[in-house]
């Protein structure tokens, strides 16, 4: 099977956000995915292709399709509780490459 050319592949964006409160990154990512699915439906959620890339202490990096970056930020705003703990998710930066997004993580 041949791979798609770069012109046909879906462009990705990398969103770095901070978890303010008592929660782990993996729990926060699951909460954001659930919030996105509730807001926009399971088909949009599948098309957005949200995945965790890296994390460092309270900073997390997500991969998302280019067209869905703003919708992902809207879903992040809706997350208020994770495992019974009040949290706030703050968007730190959005980038088109992992290397530049890693600068937001402090690497």
The level 1 CATH classification is Alpha Beta
Task: Please give the number of β-strands.
Answer: 5
Q: What distance lies between the first and last C-alpha atoms, to the nearest angstrom?
A: 37 Å
What's the gyration radius in Å? 14 Å
What is the average of the pLDDT values? 92
SSE pattern? EHHEEHEEH
How many helical elements? Answer: 4
* Secondary-structure class: alpha+beta
Describe this structure as you would to a colleague.
- This protein has about 110 residues and is α+β, with helices and mostly antiparallel strands.
- The protein has a single domain (about 10-95), classed as Ribonuclease P, Pop5 subunit (Alpha-Beta Plaits, 2-Layer Sandwich), CATH 3.30.70.3250.
- Helices cover about 40% and strands about 35% of the residues.
- It is built from four helices and five strands.
- It has helices at about 25-40, 40-50, 70-80, 100-105; strands at about 10-20, 50-55, 60-65, 80, 85-95.
- It has a five-stranded antiparallel β-sheet with strand order 2-3-1-5-4.
- A hairpin with a 2-residue loop joins strand 2 and strand 3.
- Helix 1 (about 25-40) packs across helix 3.
- The longest helix has 16 residues, at about 25-40.
- The protein is globular, with a radius of gyration of 14 Å.
Topology:
Blueprint: E1 12-21, H1 25-40, H2 42-48, E2 51-56, E3 59-65, H3 69-78, E4 81-82, E5 85-95, H4 98-105
Antiparallel strand pairs: 1-3, 1-5, 2-3, 4-5
């Amino acid at each position: 099977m041949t791979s798609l050319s770069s012109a046909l592949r879906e462009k990705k964006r990398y969103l770095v956000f901070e978890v303010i409160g008592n929660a782990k990154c993996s729990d926060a990512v699951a909460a954001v995915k659930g919030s996105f699915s509730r807001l926009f439906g399971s088909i949009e959620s599948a098309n957005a292709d949200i995945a965790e890339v890296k994390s460092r202490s309270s900073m997390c990096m997500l991969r998302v399709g280019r067209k869905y970056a703003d919708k992902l930020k809207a879903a992040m705003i809706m997350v208020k509780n994770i495992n019974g703990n009040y949290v706030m998710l703050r968007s730190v930066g959005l980038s088109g490459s992992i290397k530049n997004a890693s600068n937001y993580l402090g690497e």
